[in-house]
Every structure is written in structure tokens, then in C-alpha cells.
Design goal:
It is built from 16 helices and 5 strands. By secondary structure, the protein is mostly helical. It has 3 domains: 7-103; 116-212, Orthogonal Bundle (DNA polymerase, domain 1), CATH 1.10.150.130; 230-401, Intergrase catalytic core (hpI Integrase, Chain A), CATH 1.10.443. A 3-stranded antiparallel beta sheet has the order 3-4-5, with no helix packed on it. A two-stranded antiparallel ribbon has the order 1-2. Helix 2 packs across helix 4 (86-100), helix 9 (230-237) packs across helix 13 and helix 14 packs antiparallel against helix 15 (376-383). The longest helix has 20 residues, at 182-201. It is globular and about 90 Å long.
Length: 414
Amino acid sequence: MIPRHDCISDRRTVSPASHRALSAFTAWLAARGHARSTIDAYFGAARHLLVWLRGRGRSVRSVTKDAIEEFATRHVPTCPCPPHGVKTVRAAVRRFHQITNAGVRRGRPVPRRTSAVDKEVQAYRAHLIGTCGLAESTCTYREAHVRKFLTQMEVRPLSGAVHLDVANVADYIGRQAASAGARGVYRMAGSLRSYVRWLSLRGLLEEEILLTVPGVRRPRLARMPRVLSASQLRKLLGSFDRRTSTGRRDFAMALCMAELGLRACEVAKLNIADIDWRQRTIRVLAAKSRRWRLLPLPHHVGAAVGGYLRKGRLPSAYPLLFVRHSVPRGTPLATEHVRGAMRRAYARAGFPTTWTGTHLLRHTAATLMHQRGATLKEVADVLGHLCIDTTMVYTKVNLPALRKVALPWPEVSP
């Protein structure tokens, strides 16, 4: 058993190299926007780690994850030094170790091993983005399904021609379908068919094998899109606290989706330069078609965005319109951050817990446009649909138009 090292009896100043590392660590924490109390706690935990390592004749560059876990769970709770929470210590020393040893081992870059499956999946993703022009989200789930297929089926596409056993492929699809919902099965089958087609284009597989990968039929227009009523939309927009900078940002993002029909990923990628305040327009890069579209900027949406820029947006080195207000502050928002802000607004508005996506707001925008007299072509142009058939689903909820074509009940006299 390693004897307990009394850190209190070892109060000597840390080495100049350790002092520089601690100074760089605190500067990095401050740049990310951490609170002063958090910076002090992380600094104390990192310095405690350096003293503990010095007592064992080790440096922070040679420490392992097991040593960090030993320090956080075994040494800290029994050390007579000023107390630190185990959770705080673990987070602080892991981050300090990562920052100190970022990509360095014995002064040389640490090479990352890339397996054959990794290389194949990377090439497939490049094909999806560069040739097919698919959205990032589509590439992500297709990549995941193909990686799982290659791993479990032990396919080796880089070694030459690929041989797929029809019975094994069908058995694999059956096993995956048993634990997935209808949408999951549809995505999995589509991903595998896309990958097999790509193998055929490369000459690694006979084209006939594509027939062995079954497609999953997905009835078009089978489901009614969920939309918010006028009262529900007012309730949702009223749930944002616009006295705070975060509330102003989230309110402006909600209006961009509920009034302009933007996707969450499109909202996250908006730039300040995309807004033409004189012409009252906003330029949006479609996530799926990768084409720019120019949309009118309604007065109330522009007022919300302008209010956020004047009184809410944090200073940032990024040109993005919406940035993070939590650590790391001023950095770009991810799509999931936009979705998270809307999920919290749904909860405040008292909506069902099953309402988690942001397409609800996009559907609402499209339905309201169609109910107000916009043609399907105009709605498709605003939403960025390349095919007007995609926009057809919104005619199912245009109740005023449906009332005009409804026939009177036979028993009712005119």
C-alpha cells in the first residue's frame, strides 16, 4: 500500500515549469468564461495534483488516467489539505492533464491509429458529402449504420472484392430491425443500400447484390404533421425571459424557426453578415440542398434579432449571429444547443414531454403561410424544398382551404 503523502508538510513552491502550466491553465479557464470561484477551485485542484506527483517523483506529462483516478478517489478524500469535492477534482485534473499534454508525448506528436473500418467509413462519408451532397445529420446516421455493419459482419472492403452472403445480410437486418422502431429500420436499410450501391460503383461488388438488401417502404403523407395553434405559439413565445441575454437569444431563434421556417442547424449557422438591414432580408444556406435562399425579414423578427445584437450577444471572435452564453462563452452554437433551448421552452409552456424536436416550429411556419394564402410553390421556396411534393404534407392541415371544398351533409337542407 502506498503511504499517504502529507501535502500540508510539503508547501514548497512548485517548479517554474509547473507554475507556467498553472498560469496557462487559469488563463484558458478565464478565456472560456468560467466563474472566478470555478477558476479558483480548478487551480487549487491542479496545484494539489502537482504537489502529489512531485512527492512521487513524477511529472504531469507522465501521469496516466489511472493515476488521476487514484488521486481523485483515494488521495483527496484522506488528505488533510483544504477539502475539494471529488467531482470537482476529477474534472479539474483531467482537464489540466489534457491541456498540458495536448497531442504531446516525449515532445513528439501522438499518432492516432486508424483502422481499416475507420478509413472505409471516412471515404464513404466523403462520398456522401462531396458527391451526394447530403446534410450533415444524414451523413452522421448513415456513417453510424455502416460502421456497425462493417464491424459486426467483418467486411473488409479495402482488401479487394467484397463477398456478401445474402443469408447473413438478411439475418443482420432482421436482428437490427427487431430492436428498432419504424424510423430506425427505414434509416438502417437506406444506409446499407446506399453503401452497397457505393461498393458497386467502385467495382468491389456485383450490382445484383443490391437486390438482396431490402428497402423499407415509408408511406408518404401518412402522418399528420404536428403544428402549434395560434394560442400555443403565443404561449411558447411568452415563455422566454427577454430581460436576460439568454432569453433574448432563444426568443430570436424561436421566431426564426416559427416565422421563417428555418431548421435548427440553419439557425445555428446564421452569420451577422447574412442580414441586410436596409433591404430587410436574410440569407440562409439550406442544410440539405447546400443552396442559398434569400428570405424577407419581417419587422418583429428583425426587432427580436436586433434587440439581441444590441443588448444580449456576448463579445465573440466568431461572425455567427447566435453564440453560446455558457462555458465556453462566445463560441459557436451547435444544433443540439438550439434544440435544447426549444425543449426547455416547451417545458416552461407546459407542452407534452414527448415534444422534443424543432421541426414542430418549422411545420407551424409552413402551415401558417399556406393558411394565409401562400401557394405551395411559395412555401417550398421559403422552406428550401427542391421538390414541391415535399411541401404537399402541409395542405393536410390547411383547415380554411379544406372547409371550402367540404360538401354539405346529405341530411342537411341548404
